[in-house]
Design brief:
Transferase(Phosphotransferase), domain 1, kinase, Rossmann fold
């Protein structure tokens, strides 16, 4: 990101660049009216405004070009009053109120939208640009709850230097918790990046073994692109354990003593709804046992990998499965799993899997 302009003339150049984006929207919304067509973009975001340099050598002589029409819809107009478009569930962070799908009852339906949704989104982007011009990059950082800062101080060196990966269950039932998921991820990811020098990573169960490693804002936006329809959690977390977690425990340079594997904390965001009335943890315990076997075989500390299952909702079977997982390593003296409700103590979420006392707080015995 370039530094914000300081002189009035350079600031005006930024706003003039936005006039180009507005002209682009005009052509989308009205340029094809004579031909009887209308296009609504539905995903105007900073990432979808391409910065194009002019022939000038001045850094702020730029044009903004609208890109990524993946959510756009073009329709033929029946008359001049026919302005309604088909809602294709475009971006939500910069989306207008009438295009929101945050509420449970709007997750899968369609809203009535017009080209005004694009104007709203561009206005949001321009508001961010105004903050950037006034306060720089720091102004775009989310304000931090003082309670979160207090947790950072408490955690101190207890988790510093650990890798942190979020594994997100994107099943249909988890989609009902979409707003809570994104809000909690925002807080947890902010904390994790204070201690993880390599940056926070996210893996969605529908995309495993793909890992996303970006800044927190970009990671948050990836939640909006999930379909929340994944099935068979046992298979998905099994692939994650086998192809991502276990390989980090033994690489060739670690085997010959050049380095030690980095400690790893895995946050699993789930509701535990993996099928009703099943034994154990509905099969999810199997990849956990495979991980424990590798830890024991490599003679690593039980805290080498810490898995924290964070539970959304209060499904009875889900709670029972997660309680089983919470204790599945005790018989091998390698209890690397903890489970906490998502509205629980944030400090305990980070420390629970690596501290036996906190791991046992509020637990039920299976």
């Amino acid at each position: 990101m370039m530094e914000p302009p300081r002189s009035p003339s350079d600031i005006n150049k930024i706003w003039n660049a936005f006039s180009g984006a507005l002209e682009g929207l005009h052509h989308l919304h009205f340029g094809a009216i004579d031909a009887g067509d209308q296009t609504i973009h539905q995903d105007i975001t900073p990432e979808n405004l391409l910065v194009s340099k002019t022939t000038s050598s001045q850094p702020y002589d730029v044009h903004f070009v609208i890109i990524d029409f993946g959510y756009s819809h073009t329709k033929g107009l029946r008359n001049s009053q026919d302005r309604w478009g088909i809602d294709l569930h475009g971006g939500q962070i910069y989306g207008s109120p009438e295009s929101s799908h945050h509420a449970d009852y709007t997750l899968h339906g369609r809203n009535r939208i017009t080209p005004k949704v694009d104007i709203w989104s561009l206005g949001c982007v321009m508001s961010e640009a105004a903050v950037w011009i006034k306060y720089g990059r720091q102004g775009l950082e989310d304000p931090v709850d003082p309670r979160v800062e207090d947790v950072v101080r408490q955690l101190g060196n207890n988790v510093k230097g650990r890798d942190h990966i979020f594994f997100v269950d994107v099943s249909q039932s988890m989609g009902q918790h979409f707003r809570d998921i994104t809000e909690k991820f925002k807080i947890l990811a902010y904390l994790a990046k204070q201690f993880d020098p390599d940056g926070v990573e996210v893996c969605f169960s529908s995309e495993v073994p793909v890992i996303h490693k970006e800044n927190t804002t970009k990671l948050q936006r990836r939640f909006n692109k999930q379909k929340w329809d994944q099935l068979s959690f046992e298979d998905r977390i099994g692939t994650f354990i086998d192809r991502i977690a276990i390989p980090r425990l033994s690489s060739w340079h670690q085997k010959i003593g050049l380095t030690k594997p980095k400690s790893l904390t895995i946050f699993v965001l789930t509701d535990g709804r993996w099928g009703g009335g099943k034994e154990g943890a509905a099969g999810v315990e199997n990849p956990i046992f495979r991980l424990i076997n590798v830890i024991l075989r490599e003679e690593l500390s039980r805290t080498q990998v810490a898995i924290q299952f964070l539970r959304f909702g209060d499904d009875a079977d889900g709670k029972r499965y997660l309680t089983y997982l919470d204790h599945c390593g005790t018989q091998y003296k390698c209890d690397c799993v903890d489970t906490k409700p998502i509205d629980g103590n944030i400090f305990d979420m980070f420390i629970g899997p690596i501290n036996a006392d906190i791991d046992g707080v509020g637990e039920d015995v299976p």
